[in-house]
Specification:
This protein folds into 2 domains: 192 residues, Glycogen Phosphorylase B (Rossmann fold, 3-Layer(aba) Sandwich); 166 residues, 3-Layer(aba) Sandwich (Rossmann fold), CATH 3.40.50.2000. The protein contains 14 helices and 12 strands. A 6-stranded parallel β-sheet has the order 2-1-3-4-5-6, sandwiched between helices. Helix 7 links the parallel strand 7 and strand 8. It is elongated, with a radius of gyration of 21 Å. About 4% of the residues have low confidence.
Length: 375
């Protein structure tokens, strides 16, 4: 009988879903006999989940400092803190519904909300199948911490140390990197040091088109270097319309795009990426050895991602946006700095993360190895 793996994510931003899809695609490729599904834990048919997602996005837009306060407060919580318990109690019925509908043999989470709910069900004797967490940021947050989770797939040593320091055995923690689409391994970065053409500057704000994209495009109009600017608005139609208006007056060639499946190609040809610090986008950029300029990170986890990436030497933070043009001019005039950033990105990148995770999940569910020890 075919084994079933259910990947449970949440569409708060697009990165968590993209990570789940990347693992699913690799599982389908290497283990076609396995039945694999991805579900959105906060899909719009569930009114409570939709409300939570909309509340999160509204806080980021209207009350970013309040969201940052709540995020930092929850970071200081102990493993049994109320924030996780409340999340679990609110969402346990949704998880029970998914379990009844899909009847999986294994659960894999790319967002902490369903992870909290499943851990609660395990603690209360309502769930007993293997569970894995794929952590989709460069920093640790206690919302992910549950002794009921059998395996953790994480981005770096720092998260491994944090998990271990909170009681998770090292043999349950695997430093795989953050899973990105396999097509990023199939599009090697161009040799930009030999590119004599006009440098391309890629500006992105994730699937939701968040961050100071419009401000970045305006700032680059004052750059002394001739540039090609590619601005990706994602699913943000309002932003796309604003950018198209700017295109008429841009002194540099400006290409405006909505949601696209060609991010790997755009990154492979770019000299710099200007973006907020979503972990999926940044992991994709690392795979393409693409230097990062981080503008207006969202509060909370993206702020922590920005700190990690700058400390690693693969990114620079820029604030306010009007200083962007002078920084781009300086970097493009100093190729040795960009070369050093590309080298560090190469060392930090883990483009095969989805494949490594899929291999371990497949081997475990088919009893070829035992990465899921008893809780």
């Amino acid at each position: 009988m075919s084994k079933k793996i259910l990947l449970v994510s949440a569409s708060i931003g697009s990165g968590h879903i993209q990570a789940a899809n990347a693992v699913r695609d690799e599982l389908n490729r290497i283990s076609p006999a396995t039945n694999v599904a991805v579900v959105d834990f906060l899909d719009q048919e569930i009114s409570l989940g939709h409300l939570i997602k909309e509340t999160y996005l509204k806080m980021l837009d209207v009350l970013p400092h309040a969201y940052d306060f709540l995020y930092r407060k929850s970071q200081k919580s102990q493993p049994g803190a109320s924030v996780k318990n409340v999340t679990a109690l609110i969402m346990k019925r949704k998880m029970l519904k998914l379990l009844y509908e899909y009847r999986p043999d294994m659960l894999v989470f790319t967002h902490p909300f369903p992870c909290c709910a499943a851990a609660y069900l395990c603690r209360t004797g309502q769930l007993s199948i293997p569970m894995a967490a794929v952590m989709t940021d460069f920093s640790f947050h206690p919302m992910w911490l549950h002794k009921e989770i059998n395996a953790y797939f994480v981005a770096n040593n720092e998260i491994q140390h944090a998990l271990h320091g909170n009681g998770i055995a090292n043999d349950r923690i695997f430093i795989t990197g953050i899973p990105i689409s396999p097509k990023f391994t199939q599009t090697p970065p161009n040799n930009r040091t030999k590119d004599r053409g006009i440098p391309e500057i890629l500006i992105m704000g994730g699937g939701l088109g968040l961050g100071a994209i419009e401000e970045a495009v305006i700032s680059l109009q004052s750059a002394k270097t001739q540039l090609k600017i590619i601005a990706v608005a994602g699913n943000n139609a309002k932003l796309r319309d604003k950018l198209l208006t700017l295109k008429n007056t841009s002194c540099n060639p400006l290409t405006v795009m909505g949601y696209t499946e060609r991010i790997n190609e755009l990154m492979a040809n770019a000299s710099l990426l200007i973006t907020k610090s979503g972990a999926l986008t940044c992991s994709e950029a690392l795979s393409q050895e693409l230097p990062l300029l981080l503008l207006s990170p969202l509060p909370g986890q993206e702020e922590d991602n920005a700190n990690f990436l700058t400390q690693q030497g693969v990114a620079l933070r820029i604030s306010p946006a009007h200083q962007l043009a002078s920084l781009v001019d300086e970097l493009l005039s100093k190729p040795h700095i960009l070369a050093a950033m590309r080298s560090k990105a190469h060392d930090l990148s883990k483009p095969a993360a989805a494949n490594h995770i899929a291999l371990m999940l497949s081997a475990s569910i088919h009893n070829r190895t035992a990465i899921f020890s008893a809780s």
